[in-house]
Amino acid sequence: MAHVSAAERRPQLIKAAIDLMTREGVAAGSTRAIAAELGVAQATVHYTFGTKEDLYRAVMDQITDELVAHVQRAAPEDAGFEKTFSALAGALWGTLREPTSHQQLLTELTMFALRVPGLNEARQSHYQRVIEVTAQVIAETADRTGQKLAESPETVARFFLSGFDGLTMQVLLSAPDEATERTGLRALVAATVALAKGSLDLPDVPTA
């Protein structure tokens, strides 16, 4: 049998892990099961990635890269700030119902990482990257459309992502009808745009 380098095996194992865990859940993603999915020895997984946590981290990075690329491709080049942001939010939301996007798996992995010391840092790095990419898209959109931002791009990104994560959990846990989902997304987009433009009234909220 021809030797396959670790560099060649890496994307194969990532795909095998994604396919397996998409079908059967994160709990089923042992190194033994992932190796069997690809038809290689379990030692191949450890040789290529070192630990299961390293493989999971690579899976999170891969799915995030795919989602970011999908959303960036959906950005209109000649629309105003509000329409552009709505298009981006709609594209991201559409991936939630698209099996090939693996967004549900990414959510499951993120929650799983909360309980795994070896993955907690990866979870934090992943979410910080998502914030940074979202902030960059917001800043570039504002610059292209001439929209002055009343808040920093990172603040607007965090606001949007917090609401989006909440809507995502509602879909995964309670499966609301499509009309309710769309209403929630439209409200989130409107509130985010209002925050960006400085027209959202932010009352003082006691924290203690």
From TrEMBL:
Keyword Transcription: yes
Pfam families, A to Z: TetR_C_6 (PF13977), TetR_N (PF00440)
DNA bind region: 30-49
Alphabetized UniProt keyword annotations: DNA-binding, Repressor, Transcription, Transcription regulation
Coiled coil: none
UniProt protein name: HTH tetR-type domain-containing protein
Native species: Streptomyces rubradiris
Domain HTH tetR-type: residue ranges: 7-67
Keyword Transcription attributed: yes
Domain of life: Bacteria
